[in-house]
Amino acid sequence: MNKITNENITIVFLWAEVVGYLHSVLSFIAANRGANIEVVHWDKRNQNTTQFKIQSLDGVNFHGRSETGDDVIFKILKDSQPKIVVISGWMDQGYINACRRYKKENSSVKIVAGIDDMWTGSLRQRLGLLYFKFNYRALFDYLWISGQPQYSFAQRFGYGINNIISNLYSADTALFTKDRVAISRRFVFVGRLVKIKAVDLLVEAYCNLPASVQKQWPLLLIGDGDQKAGILDRGNENISVIPFMQPEELRQELLKGGVGCLPTHKDQWGVVLHEFALMGLPILASSGCGAATEFLISGFNGYMFKHGSVSDLSRVLRLFTKLDESNLLSFSNNGISLGMRISTHSSSDSLLSVLYK
Fold first, then answer.
1. Judgement on whether residues 82 and 194 belong to the same structural domain of the protein
2. Do both 317 and 202 map to the same domain?
3. 108 SS3 class
4. pTM higher than 0.70, yes or no?
5. Quick check: 196 pLDDT over 50?
6. Cα–Cα distance measured from residue 213 to residue 347, given in angstroms and rounded to the nearest whole number
7. In this predicted model, what pLDDT tens digit does every residue of 128-166 receive, in sequence order?
């Protein structure tokens, strides 16, 4: 796709949190595709939000939602005349109302809704389908999905293949492919230390390993959350906990190598798996992780376990501890090839493809 400076287009993102992977996509589109970008984003922090620090970007203007009322959002749309509006789902009614008002005045705008939910067939989801079709189907021209687990959900909303675009989430491929990791024996978790991430199960399964194995294979947890105190109370000298890291700091730590772990009960996607794969870390992930469909093949670049099962997680931990350096190197190389399935480039151009439909 050629740079589109001749059109001088504007794209407006009405988004939830701005995190590292979105930041890299915004940077790529502005720098390499010539678009002007306005971003309204949730900026209120709590224990369930990221601590990512937004950096200024040429061609991108950020507006904190706490200081951007509904009328101001509509004014941003009206003044900038975007050809694409991207909205992170339908959780923010102010975003929805602004899109409705703008579309009435500019029917040619392409409104793209990002979704990362996986279809489970629950009663709540089935009722939600009816609600969506009545309230949002006419508003959203395209659904932007993260991957395979979301495709059937998008179809159920009434969208065909021409109105579903992929690669909603991508790790910052320019950052996480700079260097190869070392091959080392340790387990590494990156994420919020909260119940849904099942970090408590990881710690429990890890502590079931023989003491001699734990000494050879330490566990590093990177992040913050309400599970931290309980983990530290165990007093296990082989378990280390360090706070949330900004992307470059995280890359530097991951360069030391290890096995990247995501034991989550349910993660609609899990961009950290992509980061692990790109850097060449073998991967341990649960069946509750959506990104495992792209970035993990058991026996090829890591192992999957049944989510919520401490015994199965223990089994997989033991499998890793029996691997020699050549096996770990093979997993590392294989993971890198899987990591390149999605990139900042392909994520950006997947969004821009709606201009040509």
1. no
2. yes
3. coil
4. yes
5. yes
6. 40
7. 899 899 999 999 999 999 999 999 999 999 999 999 999
